[in-house]
Amino acid sequence: MNFDYTEEQQMVRDSIARFVQDDYDWDTRRAIVSSDEGMSRSNWQTMAELGWLSIPFSEADGGFGGNIVDLSVVMEEMGKGLVVEPFFPTVVLFGGLVARAGDEAQRASILESVIGGETLGAFAYVERQSRFAIADCKTSATKNGDGYTLNGEKVVVFNGENADTLVVLARTSGDQSDEDGLSLFVVDANAEGVSKVCYPMMDAQRVANITFDNVQLDAGSLLGAEGGAAPVVHEVVREALVALASEAVGIMGTLNAKTLEYTKTREQFGVAIGSFQALQHRMVDAMMAYEQSKSLLFKALCEYKIDPASAEATIHALKVLIDRNSKLIYGEAIQMHGGMGITDELDIGHYAKRLMMINATLGDGSFHRSKFIETTYAAA
Questions:
Q1: DSSP string, 145-201
Q2: 6-44 burial, b for 16+ CB within 10 Å, e for fewer?
Q3: Count of other CB atoms within 10 angstroms of residue 117
Q4: Which pLDDT belongs to residue 268?
């Protein structure tokens, strides 16, 4: 089986790699995350001009018409550079929902501005009590004439601080944990009744807790069918899990490369520590963990291209393996770098923090282990 990238995919990969190498060195990234917005608008416009923001969207919507492999290429390379610009929350989550659930007018008005870099988006779905159960939703959208009145709170909204527009998951009918009765709404982040508490996460990503107090929405704010949001959300989450795994694989490979290089230059007792057999064995374990994760990612990508639903079990297994293997890899990287491995000045600890956040996003290893068992038994 041929696992080589196409010419177009290789061009995208090389383009992002050059951007990370030439314009996203460690000092530049530290300055960006320390800025007021925690991102660079200039970099975001560069991504738009280079066409990266258009990759997952269909040609009919003005996009590149890429598939899951194209998206994986982008996420892996951005992971290598610890890019903090909100590609995942804006393009994968927000854009993915609009592309799947929006009508022609909504797609035309929203996706064009996302692809052009004018709009930053966010998906508001997590609530204080919900943990990883997305359907556990108290936020309500009540019919009000031809429109809706939105009330509730969403927490840890990725890119919630800088987002211009939100897609909000709200309940229009049913009980608190029912999948039926969930609806999606497009909400202006600066609308009356919308308030935010913004803060950075440990990996420097900016998030917000957002409260909706009698926010008035017109009928055109409804994204997709009323009460029918669950299947669309599941589709986007499935794709998002593969995207996150791709980013994690990029980070894991980078950590191994940086650690291997360090063991060749760091001397103890007059010799490089990479010559010690015990450390060589540990590096082999880390390399094998990376290769295992990359192989399962390839399996998930192949299955997803054939039929996204058929990849469900493999994607759950991939999230479990990423959770386990990333802990091994960043643990060894920190151990071999010693105390400076967790200092703010060195990038090793920051790669580790990003992996920790990936592991906690859209379900941790334990959650997806349970989902894998459920999916496997259901198929049987």
A1: TTEEEEEEEEEEEETTTT-SEEEEEEESSS-TT-STTEEEEEEETTSTTEEEEEEE-
A2: eeebeebbeebeebbeeebeeeebeebbeeeebbbeebb
A3: 19
A4: 82
pTM: 0.96
Mean pLDDT by 10 residues, the chain (380 residues): 83 96 93 95 97 96 95 97 97 98 96 97 97 96 95 98 98 96 98 97 96 96 96 98 98 96 85 84 96 97 94 97 97 91 91 97 96 85
Q: Contact, 187 vs 217, CB < 8 A? A: yes
CA dist 310 → 56, 133, 247, 303 (Å): 20, 21, 22, 7
Q: Which residue has the tokens 């610009």?
A: 85
Instruction: Set out the domains of the chain in order of their start, with CATH numbers.
Output: 7-119 (1.10.540.10), 122-227 (2.40.110.10), 231-379 (1.20.140.10)
> 212 and 152 in contact (C-beta within 8 Å)?
yes
Cα–Cα distance for residue pair 116/241, rounded to 1 Å: 25
